[in-house]
Model the fold of this input.
Amino acid sequence: MWFKATESCNCIEPQWPADELLVKYQYISDFFIALAYFSIPLELIYFVKKSAVFPYRWVLVQFGAFIVLCGATHLINLWTFTVHTRTVAMVMTAAKVLTAVVSCATALMLVHIIPDLLSVKTRELFLKNKAAELDREMGLIRTQEETGRHVRMLTHEIRSTLDRHTILKTTLIELGRTLALEECALWMPTRTGLELQLAYTLRQQNPVGYTVPIHLPVINQVFSSNRAVKISPNCPVARLRPHTGKYLPGEVVAVRVPLLNLSNFQIYDWPEVSTRSYALMVLMLPSDSARQWHVHELELVEVVADQINRLHFDGVGYVAVALSHAAILEESMRARNLLIEQNVALDLARREAETAIHARNDFLAVMNHEMRTPMHAIIALSSLLQETELTAEQRLMVETILKSSNLLATLINDVLDLSRLEDGSLQLETTTFSLHSVFREVLNLIKPVASVKRLSLTLHLASDLPVYAVGDEKRLMQTILNVVGNAVKFSKEGSISITAIVAKPESFKDARIPEFLPVPSDSHFYLRVQVNDSGSGINPQDIPKLFTKFAQSQAVQTKGPAGSGLGLAICRRFVNLMEGHIWIESEGIGKGCTVTFIVKLGIPDRPNESKLAFAPKVPGNHVSTNFGGLKVLVMDDNGVNRSVTKGLLLHLGCDVTTAGSSEECLRIISPEHRVVFMDVCTGLDGYELAIRIQEKFKKRQDRPLIVALTGNTNRVTKENCMRVGMDGLILKPVSVDKMRGVLSELLEHRVLFEAI
Amino acid sequence: MDVGQMQRQWLDYTRSLFIEGFLDNQFLQLQQLQDENNPEFVVEVVSLFFDDSERLLKDLNFALDQQGVDFKKVDAHVHQLKGSSSSIGAQRVKNACIAFRNFCEEQNVEACLRCLQQVKQEYCLVKNKLETLFRLEQQIVAAGGSIPMMELGF
Done:
């Protein structure tokens, strides 16, 4: 509005007349504007004072100032509608200027402030959202915890009983209580598996036997998942009782309950959880309650349903295991008692046996002395009697007495020995002895009897047989003597051969001795002795009885001399004590028989030889035994060999003649030659020669001993030599010691067949 | 060289013969047979062996040269050679003879000829060795010493 200054009163007149309608409206508006402008700050101050937090106080002041000034401006404007003095105009102007300044300042300030204010607002919104979220989560946790609590409680209730019925009933009750259900029902499959039968309900005490077919679609739906499924209240399983409420029935939920078949249950065998049948649990919320199934409630139901049978199952399982443990415990107690009883009985038996043994030993000790004394008397006096002058008849009688008493003495000894062997009180003595001499002894003892019966006796000792062995010499000799004695006793004619070798492990795989598997070691070896005879033989069926005491085969009893029947039994005892084995083979009556035994003997250590009783012929020293000019003849077509053999024999003190061929040999041989050594390597000359020599010398005593020298380790060679009647066989190469031994042997025994 | 050294040399040489397998235990036995009554026993027997072997080798040559080889005869000769070589302890000759005999059984002429060469070779070797040994012995005896007793200690 522009003003026209009047000249006289220095007043300013408004352009428009004061009573125009427009001006009137302006006047009113200005008035109200001023009013509003003055009241806004008041309101602001009031509310700011109220609020505790307002960070922009001085902005408010600024704003207030601005408003106030605006109000003032408009107020002052009221005066400008009529004629007014210059002062008013000036105040008006000042007010306007001030307003302008403040409002500009405020405007500038607001540029900074408004974004801040806005952000405060957003933060407030964010916090509110956060709070809402936390609230929700709290709610969830709380519901979960509640569910867990309910499950635990239910589990506790369920576990407190093993009875299935109680469990199920308890479950329903607890569920009903927890979830405040109107009704809770359990449908169990029938035996046929084609229907579900109402088994338990919460409210109804005695459920009527409703059944529904199992293959309803709704039931299939529930069974096909392990979740709780909302079902319609109108479906058959939910329509349990007449609808009483006015409005809608409550929501119904159904869930499957896996049934573990208890018939699959075995004590140590937890069957797999694959189940075959389900029961159906139906839960109904109260009608007219507008309640809805919440997720956490459904979860609770699912968990409970899953656990019911398992808990029951577990419980039963534990009890079953406990029962089986109890059964086992009882069993072991019973067994222990039995063992105690048996122990007592055994103890008693043992004591009784010991008493018996003592009694028997006492008896034997007494009898030993008592029996032997008269025997000795008889034998001694009979021998003495034999020395005196007797008639032929008397002599015969005395001889018989002697023979009988000797036999009786042997029998007594045998019995006593055997009884000591039986109860294990016999112990082997261990000495170092000469094995060779044992065999020689036996030979010496048996030879007279053998030659009387015209049985030829041969002994073969293997070259690797130790000369000395550690063991019980007396009993080994007794065994060999017994066996050889039997061979001689039961052979009417023919030959008996004794072979002694070191048993090699391979030979142990004998089918005849299946359980016998000895292991030779560095300090022990196994001596194998085999006695062949061409005598009366034994029926193979009788062989097992031979080792039995006092048993005799019929053939023996009727023919030949009577044996006490103890000999072989004793032999077996001795052999067993020497950790060995003895057995007999025979192809039958009249076909001869072979007795073989293996015993374990020790190998003597070299340093201990000083303790030995030296056998007269000790190998390995350089003393040349002089054979005193013994006349020998050497036949060999090989010049070198001939020389060597001759040198050998010369060295041993023999008087040696040599022949380069059979003819020459026959020419020069004479009764003076005690031994003929002939080489049989070359063809049949040797054998032919042997026969010719034997023909030449009619009487056996006159002719020289014929010994073959051969490099053939061949049974055939040996058999041929024996066949043509040679007295011996030596394997080349011959060492000095060997030759010495051979000569001694030959001269002593007139026989030597080196073992092949 | 004094006697002691010569004796030691003899011992070492003899030992080497055993270690290399030219001689075996039988040779020792021969040495044992040598005593006052038979002072030259070993030399005599070995000389006999040389003569015998040379004869046999000649015979073998002849027999194998034939058109139709008489293996029986060849075998007989080898057998003889084997016998004598084993008697004096000429181990390698003996082993060669054993191999020879196997091929004789097979009637394999080429193999027999090869074996004959082998036997000849071994024989020559052992002959040289023994002659050397005897020379040593003669030297020892000439120097007034005595031949030590060999003990097979290995």
About this structure: Confidence is low (pLDDT under 50) at residues 263-274, 553-562, 607-624 of chain A.
